[in-house]
Amino acid sequence: MAETASSSRTSNFLLGAAAFMLLVAHTYGRATAGMPVKVTYDRRSIIVNGSRELLFSGSVHYTRSTPDMWPDIINKAKEGGLNLIQTYVFWNIHEPVQGQFNFSGNYDLVKFIRLIGDSGLWVTLRIGPYIEAEWNMGGFPYWLREVNGIVFRSDNEPFKYHMKRYAEMIVNLMTKEKLWADQGGPIILAQIENEYNNVQVSYREKGKRYIKWAAEMAVELYNGVPWIMCKQKNAPPSVISTCNGRQCGDTFPGPNGPDKPTLWTENWTAQYRVFGDSPSQRAAEDIAFSVARFFARNGTLNNYYMYHGGTNFGRTSSSFVTTRYYDEAPLDEYGLKREPKFGHLRDLHKALRLCKKPLLWGDFKVQKPTPDLEIITYESDKYKVCCAFLSNNKTREGATIDFRGVGYYLPPKSISILPDCHTVVYNTQTVVAQHTSRNLVVSERAKMGKWEMLRESIPTMADLELKSQAPMELYTLTKDTSDYAWYSTSMELDDLDLPMRADIFPVLRVATLGHALLAFVNEQFVGFGHGSNIEKSHVLRNPISSLKRGLNNITLLAMTVGFPNSGAYMEKRFAGPRLVTIEGLMSGTLDITQNTWTQQVGMKGERLQVFTEQGSKKVEWLPLMNNSTTATPRPVTWYKTYFDAPEGNDPVAIRMSSMGKGMVWVNGNSIGRYWVSYLSALQAPTQQIYHIPRAYLKPTSNLLVVFEDSGNGNDGDPEKIEIVTVNRDTICSVISEFKSGDIANPVKAAQLACPDNKVIGKVEFVGFGEIEGACGQFRHGNCTSSSSNARQVVEQECLGKKSCRIPMERERFVDKADGCPQIAKTLAIQVACAPPVN
Fold this sequence. Notes:
Number of domains: 5
Helix content: 10-25%
CATH architecture of the largest domain: Alpha-Beta Barrel
Radius of gyration: 30 Å
CATH topology of the largest domain: TIM Barrel
Strand content: 25-35%
Structural class: alpha+beta
Strand order of the largest sheet: 4-5-6-7-8-9-10-11
């Protein structure tokens, strides 16, 4: 009996794989494109045109890529099995000045939504207008902060007036362009507010009244599609509460109403990063497990946040957030497929689609043979359909589960999906999809020309116009028009103040609320200090060697690294120097905080726009190495050169490893902040490579301008900056047996396919047995057997081809005497793709 069950199980697994690979190759997306459809919901799902739907969604933000990238990103999202794309609407970039609107270029929201609709996909529009999103001020424009009497996100009349005015403008724009589903457009869901439960208690009764008002206001503005609120336990009856997190199948208690479906608006595919962070990763297997578990427990919409993260161009990121955003998403920063995450989730969507009918119309039943094993079925006698989810919650041990007379092996922490309650077509821990490794190739064509430099002068008190008794608050001073503001004061010292010994120096101490600070005394650099995303306040405390008898000038350059984006009372956040003293004088500690200060916003180079072709001609640039200047790098220096566009069509990036902190422009376009001198706990920069969209480049003579704000001595060597191209031409296949005596991967072959019509040009690794490392860094383990002709076999099957398939046959990879018969074997193959030879 046991032998029969095992034989049946194997047959089922292989039959399921065949069905999986051949029968589900169908088009995803809306069949009603261009036709008005009614969107409603019940307790089970969103209902489109009278039909319940399973929705596989991904967050893609139009502001974090360029219009020329949008079609490719959208098409890849569709290829990945998505039928819905979610995006925020970014108030501060659409209305940077009150009453002045911008919907052009990267900010063309209408064009972005139309492209999604033209691809046959639906849209969730998260109007907010508070969005968080690691975006400056959570999406609020700076001018809103200065509205008299305003309190953000509360039952506050000034805030509600402006929030409603903006939301109404966006809703009316969508209506005018006929983008709502009931007009024939792709928008089937809209969101008002965002994760308000995180701050509601801070506003007490005003918070309760505000969230009720927000929901009613949204439905009043447009009631043709459902409205949602994420992480809102007490969501009003007119909107659907949804879950955000990593494990909503376990943590979400469900919507707060019997007639509302279970929706997941943010399934975090990794974690955004701030400068100073170590790498953040989340395995494809873990994401797949969480999604399968969610759908097995009545979920019908899952949204990956992010599906494509992209780039925080310019000064758009919030406090300390890196320029690269959610690079660990299924589509990386450049829009390239991150495998196996992309492929493994694509395969999951295929499997779940095979369960669509039982999931949406079947009866739910759960069984727990053991505390760690679970069987969930959706079955309907009326429709003669059945789908099963077999779960093993043990994190370290595999298990065999008996289901309807058949034994099914489940790897640790995994779920198997059986769309007919008999045939396994997918297991969350078993990755069939190929793997990729990202490569950076130094461009031969994009060599830098000669560098020139322009040094900002260090101002004194007499050079700055804005006068105050104490240093002005930084956010209010800059009004988010620049990361930088100068502060200066002066003081008279005599011999009774200065130390008598030449080897003893007074100390400048500046306590600041963030984010970073440079200090100069008598135009000589004293030091650089900064806070962190966790503790933005910091104290700069450095010795001064340049104090002198007579007049002394103290100059500070205070810096923001984005505004806060979360929490209650955001309109009341403050930054900048708060206490300035000089310690170690003969006369004691001197407090100069109330000494009368002058201020100025921004750099002279910013005001002249020296990062543009026209602006760069307004100043005199000096050669980087010049007898009249010192070769030692120093802070607040501009660097300029030209380069030609790199060869080919691969994405382009710039390696800033030799610099410290600052900003980069290409042909006048800001590609964001860099900060490579801020090391993580791994003693490595959080980000060294920065994306330059191809759309920003000309064939030749591209103007590159770098502003190094804090380099000194060890930082700020522009001659070592490199232009690179980015590819994922290293591809791998890794398939494994579960354990000795159990069936192996249902697709018993390594499968490899090159991107972009490239062909396999080189076989770089072949191993069978214990394999260590990952794609791009494979190593043979302690027990790895391979026949002498293993590489030859792979080369014969793969070289020169766009794709190949290598059967996992032991006799081809194992010597006659298997030294480790008890070890489950892994087959790992790594190849390099290249353009085809003409």
